[in-house]
Structure formats: C-alpha cells, structure tokens
Amino acid sequence: MRMELPEHKKLVYETRFPVRWGDMDAMGHVNNSVYFRYMETARIDWMMQAGMPPAPTGDGPVIVNAFCNFYQQFAYPDVVRLKLYVSDPARTTFESWITMEKDEAPGVVCAAGGATVIWVDFLQHKATDLPQWVRELTAA
C-alpha cells in the first residue's frame, strides 16, 4: 500500500545525498532506523533555511510523531533524493511529509514518511501558538 500525500501539500525543500556504507545493516540494505535520520536531516536543513533554528531558551518546533513506509530498499552506493512537503497549519502544529527516491530513478518513491511538528515554548515545556510567519510558510 502506498502512502498518499495530501493534495494541499506544499513542496518546500529538496536535497540529495549518498547512502553511506555504514547506513546498511547485515541484510545489505539501509537499516529502517536510518530512514528516520534521512528525514530528520531534510527537516532540520529546511528549518534552518526557513529561520527556525533550534532555540532551547525560546520557542520552536518539536516532532510529536513520526512514521515511515518502505516500498523499495536503498543500498550503498545509491544516492537518495528527498522531497519535503508541509501542510495543514493548525493552532500549534503543522504536518511534514517526505518522499525518498533513488536519484537515478526520479519519480519512483522508495520510502515515504512524515511527522507532526508542534510549536513549543521550551522554557514552559508546553505547546504554544504557531507564529503567523510559520503558519504562512506551511500553508499550501
């Protein structure tokens, strides 16, 4: 079963990088936990570019759930192309979606996942309203 991305998603970031030898497990393919690192890398790179750097004494984004569906395996020396989409800004959250393709097979999704991002006041340890600029950035 393929994950369906919402129609109202917005592509905000794309990157590519090589699979490292150490990303693989004993079965000769990228370990399932590494896909979450790939998604994390794309998300944090986009957040840094968008002006959302980690700010432990202020407020900012935190992941409250994450998932990944696996369709085809990656292995060394594949090059992974990640596309990050956002959607559904709400009072305190927005959704992020990521597709992963082999660079040599554009359009063939090998894995897809996402995460719900919540805006948090780090000093108070609680959710707070998304800033208006983040709401606009994540609206399709």
UniProtKB/TrEMBL annotation:
Q: Name one Pfam family in it.
A: 4HBT_2
Q: Where is the signal peptide?
A: none
What InterPro entries does this protein map onto? 4-hydroxybenzoyl-CoA_TE, HotDog_dom_sf
- Keyword Lyase annotated: no
EC annotation?
Answer: 3.1.2.-
Record bears the keyword Hydrolase = yes
List keywords of the entry alphabetically: Hydrolase
Query: Could you state a single Gene Ontology molecular function term?
Result: hydrolase activity
Similarity comment: family membership: Belongs to the 4-hydroxybenzoyl-CoA thioesterase family.
| Protein's name in the database | Acyl-CoA thioesterase
Organism source for this protein? Comamonas terrae
